Amino acid sequence: MSDLRVGRCERVEIGNVRDIPVGEGRAYAVAEEQVAVFHLRDGSVRAVGAICPHRGGPLADGLIDDAVVVCPLHGYTYDLITGTETANDGAAVCAYDAQVDADGTVRVSARGR
Asked: Nearest CA to 92 among 83, 101, 105?
């Protein structure tokens, strides 16, 4: 893994998009935080905090569609762009900027939004 600085935004290389099956997520350590990275069906990636604030569920194991991830423990639902909990008025998770480079390298911002 390596770091890339773009202007004032640091992006951390976490691996190749092929390492995350389409429609699934994987958890990675990014700047001492656990981040769940999801590979969407359109080939893009999204990233949010990996731990559900409701009861500590593993969000990387949750079901996703193009917009949300559903916690596998209790069904709390988080927007993949904003991190907002959308179904139960629960606490939000941190959302991270994520991108796939032309060679398939996935990079995630070291700071959430």
From this structure: 83
